[in-house]
């Protein structure tokens, strides 16, 4: 007997609220397609499956993934068997693409990570690539790289906080710190996620103490875990007195040419304790870190809404409190920083046609409505903390599959990766350099406003 992974309720018996919602969504989709069609944009139905049964493999044990695969009639196989679609953990992906394994994927196989995704998702490499991108544009004389007021400032590409990599950039950090000794900085380990190992400092002595306790002085010649230290955004936009950030999902099907899609159903993640800049609260992570993995352990955590607010409701709130024009500008600036972060890493990405990837972008808005890119996650959490959260992530996986697969629902690297509007579901096009190049002569200005697709 088959059981739902989440509720352990037999599928043939009474369903929980979430399962019932997902079941009804699947039925509505199948009825909408009609009885004469065997597939629709990656949604493989039960007609004609004998001809080509799509096989999937996953080592990510999340029901929102397996439910979407099973709904399409796909068959689960092991990683050593013949698979068409692999939803892999990042370490599994690295093993597949390593030279030692000698694995070579076929034309009908696809996987959910690019080989060197870490160029975007490791905190130190993201900063390095964005800095290199700026310098490259400066050498080319691009107006995008126009300098702003003050050293290291850019008019159009100033979307990450001032950041240094430790221990390598320790001396440069000290020089910057002494320009404003009372400033607050945030330390993050380069290779960790979910708020692990993060702390704030406002004195150089605290950093030196941490270094001593780590039993490794700041010596670039010694091998130790790297950290990034960034100027803390100490003037965040607050709602109800609490700090929040945005979690946005960005799907990439190609880096060269760049093809990127934004999921419209992103959300805000709130701290459970009101924002306080006092020294006494400097170590209180419930005040400063928005990660759900941190906040869910707080006494004030609300499991009903999970401390989350939809992007659509944030937009309505800002339009009513700040005005429509500035709200439009804010969301346009958010898409701007996403696209240019992708362009910054595109030249160094291994652009394998078997790959796609959905990244979790974390963005903080300050009280002047300026967005700051904080980090990018290669494996954004698919754990559901609320009913709405589960339905959202079900839609996310469903829409990803529809976008990355050809209309017949079978992986094929020869496909041009141009999904129809219907197949995109809740995704909207951020940028498609191939389409823009092809259509520029016929439709001048068609992609001029393509970065403002949030309505």
UniProtKB/TrEMBL annotation:
The keyword Oxidoreductase does not apply. Residues 362-405 form the ATP-grasp domain. GO terms for cellular component: ciliary basal body; microtubule. InterPro entries: ATP-grasp, TTL/TTLL_fam. The keyword Ligase applies. One of its GO terms (molecular function) is ATP binding. It catalyses: (L-glutamyl)(n)-gamma-L-glutamyl-L-glutamyl-[protein] + L-glutamate + ATP = (L-glutamyl)(n+1)-gamma-L-glutamyl-L-glutamyl-[protein] + ADP + phosphate + H(+). Keywords: ATP-binding, Cell projection, Cilium, Cytoplasm, Cytoskeleton, Ligase, Microtubule, Nucleotide-binding. It is found in: Cytoplasm, Cytoskeleton, Cilium basal body. One of its GO terms (biological process) is microtubule cytoskeleton organization. Its main location: cytoplasm. Belongs to the tubulin polyglutamylase family. Part of the neuronal tubulin polyglutamylase complex which contains TPGS1, TPGS2, TTLL1, LRRC49 and NICN1. Interacts with PCM1, CSTPP1 and LRRC49. This is Polyglutamylase complex subunit TTLL1. It comes from Ceratosolen solmsi marchali.
